[in-house]
Each structure stands twice: as C-alpha cells, then as structure tokens.
Amino acid sequence: MVIPGPYEQSLPAVPEWLNKGDNAWQMTAATLVGLQSMPGLVILYGSIVKKKWAVNSAFMALYAYAAALICWVLVGYRMAFGDKLFPFWGKGAPSLGQKFLIDRAAVPESTHRYKNGTEETPMTEPFYPMASLVYFQFQFAAITLILLAGSVLGRMNIKAWMAFVPLWLIFSYTVGAFSLWGGGFLYHWGVIDYSGGYVIHLSSGIAGFTAAYWVGPRLRSDRERFSPNNVLLMLAGAGLLWMGWSGFNGGAPYAANIAASVAVLNTNICAATSLLVWTSLDVVFFGRPSVIGAVQGMMTGLVCITPGAGVVQSWAAIVMGIMSGSVPWFTMMILHKKSSFLQKVDDTLGVFHTHAVAGLLGGVLTGLLAEPVLCRLVLPVSNSRGAFYGGGGGVQLVKQLVAAMFVIGWNIVSTTLILLGIRFFVPLRMADEQLVIGDDAVHGEEAYALWGDGEKYDANRHGWHGSSHPISDEPELSNHVKGARGVTIQL
Question: Where in the cell does this protein reside (predicted)?
Fold first, then answer.
C-alpha cells in the first residue's frame, strides 16, 4: 500500500508512531486552554474587581501561570503522570531531557487489569511526543491555580501567594491528577472525571474557599462594594474562557477522535443553557438581567459539563445546563446570604459556588447520565455507565461521590497545612494600610493612569491651553499627579 506523502515516515523528525493530525490538535487544544489563562483570566480578573485591585488581581494570575510551568517541568508532571510512588501519587522527576520529550507519549500506570491480573485496557499511548502531553497537562495545572486565586483577590499578600503557588501545585494538585488521571487508585476503580470536574474545578473551589478562610477577609468597604471596573473588558475575558473550553474538553481524549467532537459540542450546549437559566432566574427574582450573572452562569455550565463532556449525550448536556444554571445560582444568591458560615468566609469571586458546587454537581450528574457506548470510547473500565442506564450503573454514582469526598478532604488538609507553614514566614493578608490604597501601595502601579484621575482641574498645576495662554508660556506639569502614574495625557 502506498502511504500518502503527509503521513509518510521521515526519520528522525517523523517516526512511524507519530500522527500529525493528533499532534497538531493536541498542541492547538493546549494553546486554547492556555488562552483561557493568558490572557483570558488575566483580563477577567483585572476587570471584574474594584479598580484599585485591577493590577494586583491580574498579576496574581500572570505569576501563577509562569511559576506553574517551571514547577511542572521540574517535578510536577511526573508526580501526576509518571511511575507510581503511592496509589495516589507519582514519583517526581524532571521533564526536561530531550530523550524523554521526543519519545512517544505514554502514561505508564494507565494499564488497567482485571482482578485476575489479565490486561483489560492497554497503557495510554497517544500518537505524538511526550512534549505535547507535558505541555497540554501543564495548562490544566496552571488554570487550576488561577481559578483558586479568585477566592483570595483583593487582600492576599503577594509574597505569600508567590510561595503558595509552587507548594500547592506539588502537594495538592498532583495528588488529584495522579489519582484520577495518571493511573492512581481512583482511575483504576473506574471513577469518571473526563476532563477535570474533580481534578481542576472541585479542587480549586474547595482549596480556594479554604484559603479564603485562612487568609481572612477584605476590608469591610471592599466587601460591601466591589463593582467591576470594566464590564466590557470582563466580557472579553469571559469570551476567551468560553471559546478556550473547546480545547479544555476537546483535548481530553488525547486524540482528534469522535469523543473529542462530542465533548466540544456538549461543552457549548451546556454553557449556553446554563447562561440562559441563570439569566432567567435573575430576571424572575430580581427584575432584571445581570451581565455578571450571565458570566457566572456561563462559568457554572462549563464547569458542570467538564467531568462528563465526552460520555454524556447532548440532551443530557441540556439537562446538566439546567441544573448548573439553577443549583449554583441558589447556593450563591439564596443559601449564601442565609448561612453565617458562608458569609464569614470572604470568597471574593464566589469560586466555591461556581467551581466546587458546579464541579461536584457535574460529577454526580455524570454518575447518573454517562452513556455506555460513549463510555467505551474513552474509559479504561469496561461496562461503565450511569445509574439511569441500569446494569449496575448505580455503583458508578457511589464511585463519583466517594471520589468527591477524597478530593474535598485532601484539598482542605493540604491547603491548610501549606498556608499555616507559609504564615510562619510572611503574613497571609496584606496590612490594612495597603488594603486601603490597593495597587499603588502593593505594586507602585495603577491600572488606569489618566490625567486628572479623581482631581479637580487646576490651571496653575495642570497647565492651560487657550488663546490667551501660549503653549510656550504654560507652567511645568507636576511630577506627581495624585492617583496617576506613567504617561500623563494632556487634554
């Protein structure tokens, strides 16, 4: 048989195992997920917060993305997807050598066996190099930390955050990733987490809520009024997040296959449904639609579908969208206001509701709605199915609940220990003096450096352009304009 030119082996750059289509899609999917963080969440965080926290919030996301990459290639990837050290953790090692990165991708502990020891599902070996898999999985690790940051915006000490990022990635994220994806005990037990409903969203929501508890609250004035400084820019960041989710769920099968197509379609269906349901509830109960509410509804829909995007039918994606647009809405808008405990913990962006609640909801609904034929396309355990399809599917729901309890427990304990350790060296919360001022006190920078920001016009100080005052005679501008740094625009 004559092999077409594009698929022809061309050593050493194109070995026989390399599928160029799969490799191209995996790198594209990884980049789409990366765009969710950089610049998606950087823009979203920088615009959804109060103006005085725009720079700090965006910088926390920017720093987490960069720091996560270095930790990931130094030790993190192989702790999450390498050889087994414990049933819940892999052996850490660098992922930097050319011999490792140009070899065919593989997840060594993913071979699934029957109880008698015979092989049921072979080891996961995508048709592209390890470098592509390392890069793809890094994007998931990075966005988890950035989502977590949403709980502590507006008051966490930036030095404490800089220490927290690598420690949490190594001691918390890698445990969930190995247990559910890398061949750990939950993976082989048959728990379904298609693309991170538990590993990413439940983890970030619970860890974020725990961190918010230990860091402490914002100033009372910030808690009472924390309006977005730029709603249109917030929508731009949200749009990048939504579109990037096609790579998030479409890249999870590690191939450009049928499951990827189903996952991408279901992702968008669920997000759209959830947005419409959330907006409808805002109109019914509050009399008008909210742009912020629409973004929250979009987010909960994307999160809810993630654990089952490739294993549920598209009508089930609508059901999941209805649930994700209503249950987190209820916990955020109704339950939160009635619970003294939830009000005590200052979760800045409500990450507990949009990620922990929505992620847990998605995992439970996957345990109910996972379709047997679709499950066979991607899961290592044969005969996996949701409870609604009978045939022992009720066991799947139990597995989903047990796995959720493990993820919740591990994140509470690990996040607590990490923050208590950091607290020995630096305060977790900024000083009140910094909290009053915001970005200028923390970074010496402000988001909007425009002339006259918050000042009355003073001809003697700011200069005058008029027919009776020649430009050459205008007074020199002050070197410091209150509330503005950088370029001064003369109007």
Answer: Cell membrane; Membrane
